[in-house]
Amino acid sequence: MNSPGLFFVHYLMIINERPTAYPIFANIKTVAMEDLKLEELFQAKVDAELKIEPKDWMPEKYRKTLIRQISQHAHSEVVGMLPEGNWITRAPSLRRKAILLAKVQDEAGHGLYLYSACETLGATREKTVEDLNSGKAKYSSIFNYPTLTWADIGAVGWLVDGAAIMNQVMLCRTSYGPYARAMVRICKEESFHQRQGYEIMSVLAKGTPEQKEMAQDSLNRWWWPSLMMFGPSDANSTNSADSMKWKIKRQSNDELRQTFIDRTVQQAEILGLTIPDAKLKWNEDTKHYEWGDIDWAEFNNVVAGNGPCNKERLVARNKAHDEGAWVREAAMAYAGKQAKRKAA
Amino acid sequence: MTIQEALFTYCLRRGDDNLILSHRLGEWCGHGPQLEEDIALTNRALDLIGQARNYLQYAGQVEGKGRSEDDLAYLRNERQYTNVKLVEQPNGDYAHTMVRSFLFDAWHLPLQQALTRSKDDQLAAIASKAVKEIAYHLKTSGDWMIRFGDGTAESHQRAQRALDDLWTFSGELFATDDVEAVLFAAGIAPDMAAVKSAFDSTVQSVLTEATLKRPMDAYMATGGRQGKHSEHLGFMLAEMQYLQRAYPGAIW
Fold first, then answer.
1. Checking CA distances to B244, which of A158, A215, A322, B116 falls within 20 to 30 Å?
2. Which residue of B lies nearest to A96 if distances are taken between CA atoms?
3. CB–CB contacts below 8 A, A to B
4. Which domains does chain B have, with CATH numbers?
């Protein structure tokens, strides 16, 4: 509480939530609420860096934006299990197999936290999952690319998790409390995944010529789709303005993309691998790398459902869901019987 | 057969059972009936691969020819694998997967509990760590047996069918041969009759609660311990060993 503005917001929150506990303020409350509309109070809380919690009033569009973003994020974790799980049975050593199993399990755990965060906003898990399975909801387009070689498991950890972390670190400070708290936990695990991915690439890059070639080929295929993960350039980003105002987002797509490129180029140099961008160069004045043109036509095409694996991913999710229906029904039926027996 | 030779084979058998079942469970990853189950299956697969690594590392050490866990896992062929046929059976539906695990767990727990008292310190240490994990495996696979058996008509039917299909593979878990005899005499391996009696008692109590029928002990499949497997194992190994075979000597 270090500014008069913050104090005022805090005080308004108290009398708003527990007016009877502060009868002396009751009159002030009426006056204050007339003056400060709910949305202004909401924005004042956001501006004062106070977290919005599930029971707080929030603009309907804020709620909808969050449900869309958090559910997309949850779906991305769950769909992301497929390209990585693709190599569990072929991992080249028992150590790698165990690490990959643990990693994909972490992603499932992230999906769970995020579906729970969505539920705090009134979106049921059944409905959210149904939106994924019907193709109505989106997930990160990167998971519509195939993992063709073992090096892709390294590249996904290094680049895809690396790009995701840029967003997720920012989201640890997002204005919606449950989302921010889920992100703190997710970030810890994701940064571990990124290091594991980098370590896979590092072993390949120092390995036989065939292994190095595998690593370079993988970087070539994953580099541009990873840059696309940050979303359209700021000029073309439709959802950004409100999200920045509400502090759901705190950095723009292009700012995050720039940070990612600056870090990753150096990491590639250490590996002795070449970033597949002829226009990539260091700018001494800005102290940032400049990069070439992202193929937004490809991005739009994959988002529209025409990526290499869009159909396979949805088929796999639907198959798991449909074939699991009798299992979920059995669990519910048994729980129902047990409850009746207890009551009797 | 020397104790050392018997111990090497004994460790391979334990390692192979765990590795192959872990591999099968890993095939579910991302495809489970719900997210919580996906996590639970992966957990089980992770525990089993951890146990497999302990056994294969120890097998390599006992053999004394410098073979690593990966040499043993990735560079032996179908005829050299010593797992029971139960664990290589395909996943089937979720009832098949859970019944396969339940039968395995109901045997695995008393076996490993007995191994904690082995005169071989390393086997006793591996078992002491493993029993905590396996007790949980048995609890969860047993719970699913009960949910399926006493859930819906469909789940009951699926569980009974899976039990009837897989029962024939349960006998091999208790088969004994020279390897077991040599180690039993030395106080290293337990009495399989006692393990069988614990298995029978677990199966009896869980199936009763699940309202499922224990199949008749008719023909029991064997051969896994001697490397005479079903046709499934070859495909599993082809997939598992592909990178190690395609790039001999490479480090991953």
1. A158
2. B252
3. 137
4. 3-246 (1.20.1260.10)
